[in-house]
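For the sake of transparency, this paper describes our internal protein records without simplification. Because each token names a local backbone shape, the row as a whole describes the fold. One such record is reproduced below, unchanged from the form in which we store it:
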Amino acid sequence: MKRRAFFLAPLLLLGPRARAADPFPEVTPGHALQFPQDFGSHAAFRNEWWYITGWLEDASHNASGFQITFFRNRPGIADESSSAFAPRQLLFAHAAIADPRLGHLRHDERAAREGFGLAAAREETTDVWIGDWSLRRVEDGYRAQIAAHDFGFDLHFTPTQAVLPEGEAGVSRKGPLAAQASYYYSEPHLAVKGRAAVASADVPVTGVAWLDHEWSSEYMAPQAVGWDWTGINFDDGSALMAFRMRDRAGARFWAGGSHRAADGRVRAFHPDEIDFTPSRRWRSPRTQVEYPVAMTVRAGDLRYSLEPLIDDQELDARTGVGVLYWEGAVRATAAGPSVGRGYLELTGYGKPLKL
């Protein structure tokens, strides 16, 4: 599903066409996720991503949001080629920081074919990199190192809770057809510690983050034009993931989500239990696209208002993976007081995504 239209990569990365050696595997209902092997890459599947979002705070209590995403794509056009340059696996990455003192999002991106020691996604564990950008599973968590053109991260993420399988035991439906699904798990409430560099400042930071890992061989359903997604770490230790896929009229085409309570109980939501209702919109001065940056999200009997850390968190990746979307840090409130922090993603608002 979400944030993940990276298969629209420039054709120059693909090289000469060749026949795929093996079909893409399908997501199978009832298949149980297995760890630690499912932390790693699933190279036979068409698409995969590791996605970390969160909030950082420096010693002066300045808050900022950050996003780090690594994508893997198997084009299936050069599997039988003997050339070392054959694009059997493509790697893409996005990184961004939302600092209210800057007033707008800063972001950067990378892309490469796997091979030559320049880019790879290992199958044994989470270990994906493109040049000097990397996300690796280490003994006590994860480490991300990002050297962007005008910012950077060196962050360590320590799990404080068990892995959260999304959907039905890790099989997350994205449409009415059984094949429209992904394998999907989250790791909410990651404790963050490290350094963040913006402009000339390189400072120690702490925070809280959310990790998603998802893989599938299906594209987005043709009836859908975009999606809204949120992942919220609540102050009491609970966590909520919710998404809806929108049709051409802007209505819910499909939806889903899960809630893990502070006592560890998990509830998965049916499509009709999820609603995203815009409460305020913001128009980008660069692209003139209007985004519903403030939302009321309903998941079953839970209801929260989401307000952005800053309005201008538009991410323009059209020159790289061909996607324009809004992805930003948000605060969650319930009847007034703040109760949590997380991220909100909004796609398909400028024009329908065509995958």
